[in-house]
Amino acid sequence: MDPKKRTLAGVAATMLLVILTACGGEYPQSTLHPTADFGSEIDRLFRTIVWWALGVFVVVETALIVAIIKFRDRPGAPAPKHVHGSTLLEISWTLAPAIILIFIAVPTIRTIFRTDAAPPENAMQVEVIGHQWWWEFRYPELGIVTANEMRVPAGQPVTLVMTSDDVIHSFWAPKLGGKRDVMPGRSTRITFTPDSVGVFFGQCAEFCGVSHANMRMRVVVEDSSGFAGWVTQERTAPAAEETLSSEEAAGLAVFRTKGCMACHAIEGMAAGVLGPNLSHVGSRTTIAAGILPNTAEGLARWIRNPAGEKPGSLMPQMPMTEEELAALVAYLQSLN
Ligand code: HEC
Ligand SMILES: [Cu+2]
Questions:
Q1: Model pTM?
Q2: From ligand 2's centre to the CA of 72, what distance in Å?
Q3: What is the pLDDT of residue 1?
Q4: Is 249 inside a domain boundary?
Q5: Is residue 40 part of a domain?
Q6: How far is CA 165 from each of CA 78, 128, 157, 208, rounded to the nearest angstrom?
């Protein structure tokens, strides 16, 4: 094989490999494996459009290649006949795209209306509030407030009523479907019914400041008994002060004296609103919008230097001894 051809074959093989591997994989934020009706609707529309686009591609490229080969300049050959204006061609290449666009527009508009329909009667409402740079989830019907991890039962229609506390954010949990802006002073909505149990990743999809990329979330879809268990746990009041261990009680004292209460709520004792509600912080798997694991080590790193973990974080650094920090972490871990 001559070197030129070999290079060409190499490039073609590499490109094919790259294209094919791009389609595989179980990526946590892929839109290609939807797990809710909303996502499936969009996926179906996407596939419809891909087939039309593929058809157009094949027809256009075939015509192009035929023209290149058939009408190329050959030594000694006379110049090809010049044609100007063919009514049949003009009409057909105007009509064909118009018809294809209709076949794309009808399912698109239908999907827009279907995914924006009024929520069904039995939909569970979750209020989503975007904050720089974390998510607040409120369940008004259940009296639950949590952050960064939204739990919902599989098979249950859920309607998210979304607004922002500061700048414009965008709610996007790709496998469930969506992406919709979350705006201050306005309310937007996403309605979906998850069909599979699992943990689905999401994140803010509208640039909202320095830690935009750290504004992540998880949607935990459970079966109905798992969800009911979580609801019971979230609705249980935090343990009474007398039942805390001596280290936890020392941690509570640190919590009270270091100003944490100014921004955080803990049922029955603190009512701050600037930061996530900590009444059941122990029941979350991650903290600070998915950037640190919710472990003793993760909590300590976070409290020691919030802005070091998350640039621009609106939680200030509170000076305290390592001993006070350890007690504080023990107290926070008791809140589950
Ligand atoms: C000025 C307000 C403010 C004060 C004071 C404050 N925090 Fe925060 N805190 C926040 C904000 C805002 C966040 C969310 C940060 C983020 O994820 O970007 C946060 C996040 C947290 C989180 C993670 C919660 C989660 O679910 O992600 C913990 C735990 C926490 N704070 C504990 C404390 C403790 C303990 C203190 C006292 C030493 C304290 N905070 C003081 C504002 C504050
Ligand atoms: Cu955001």
A1: 0.87
A2: 55
A3: 66
A4: yes
A5: yes
A6: 73, 10, 26, 12
